[in-house]
Amino acid sequence: MRPFVFINAAMSLDGKISNDRREQVRISSPEDFRVVDRLRAESDAVMVGIGTVLSDDPKLTVKSEELRRERVERGLPENPIRVVVDSRARTPLNSQVLNQAARTIVAVAEVADEEKVELLRRRAEVFVAGKERVDLRALLEHLYSIGVRRLMVEGGSEINYSLIREGLVDEIRVFYSGMVIAGRRAPTLVSGESFDTPVEARLKSVEPLGNGVAVVWEMRTANLRKV
Ligand SMILES: NC(=O)C1=CN([C@@H]2O[C@H](COP(=O)(O)OP(=O)(O)OC[C@H]3O[C@@H](n4cnc5c(N)ncnc54)[C@H](O)[C@@H]3O)[C@@H](O)[C@H]2O)C=CC1
Ligand SMILES: Nc1nc(O)c(N)c(N[C@@H]2O[C@H](COP(=O)(O)O)[C@@H](O)[C@H]2O)n1
Questions:
Q1: Where is the Bacterial bifunctional deaminase-reductase C-terminal domain positioned along the sequence (predicted)?
Q2: Which ligand ends up closest to the CA of 177?
Q3: Which of 67, 106, 115, 195 gets the highest tally of CB atoms within 10 A of its CB?
C-alpha cells in the first residue's frame, strides 16, 4: 500500500516553476503561501527531490505557529516528516532539511557513497531503495509502513515526472501566477521525456487566489493506489 500522493507547485503563466538558473523564485502569492502552509500542516510527510534541495535549501516546515499548535493538539509532531529523494547522497550536511525542526528521511540508492551515507545517518534517517536511482514505489511503501497516509510532493520537475510516469500521483494542485518568467532552460512542472500517450487528468476545482488561480487536477491513475 502507498499513501495518498499529491503534488503542489506554483507556476508562472508561461508554465515555469523556476528560472533558467534554477533559482528559487517566489511565484506563489501571499494567499497561496497560506494555503500551501495549511496543506503541509495537513500532510504526514513532505517530499522533494535533491535538485530542489540543492537549488532552494528548503526548510519544508509549517510556518504558522497556530497550525503547528493544532498539529500538536492532534497528537502529531509540529512538522510533517521531510523526505528527500537523493540517489547519490548529495544532500549537503549543512542543509536546512537536516536541522532538528522535523524528522527527516533521506532516500538513497545503492550507488550512494557509503561514507557520505554514514554522515547523513548521524543527522537523519536513511532509507536505501533501488540500484542507480531511488525506487519510488519502495519508498512510498516504506512511508506507508511508518504511518504516512498523506504525502505532499513539493517538486521539482524531475521528481514530479518520475512519480507521474510510475502512476504514483493522485492529485496535482497548481497555483498559476500572474507573472512571466521565460527562459528556454527554465524548468516546467514536469520534465523528463514526453510520454507516448499523455497522462490524463480530471479537473477537480478552480479557485481565484490573489494574483493567480489555484487549480486541482485528479490524476487518472488515482484508482491505482495499491502497489
Ligand atoms: N515553483 C515551485 O512550486 C517549485 C519549484 N522548484 C524548482 O524546481 C527546480 C528543481 O527541480 P529539478 O532540478 O527537476 O530537481 P528535483 O527536485 O526534481 O530532483 C531531481 C533529482 O532527484 C534525484 N532522483 C533520485 N531518484 C529519482 C527518481 N526516481 N526520479 C527522479 N529523480 C530522482 C535525481 O538526482 C534527480 O536529479 C529548482 O529550480 C526549484 O526551485 C521546486 C519545487 C517547487
Ligand atoms: N508553493 C510554492 N510556491 C513558490 O513560489 C515556491 N517557490 C515554492 N517552492 C517550494 O517550497 C520550498 C521552500 O520551502 P520553505 O519555505 O523553505 O519551507 C521550495 O524548496 C520548493 O519545494 N512553492
A1: 3-214
A2: 2
A3: 106
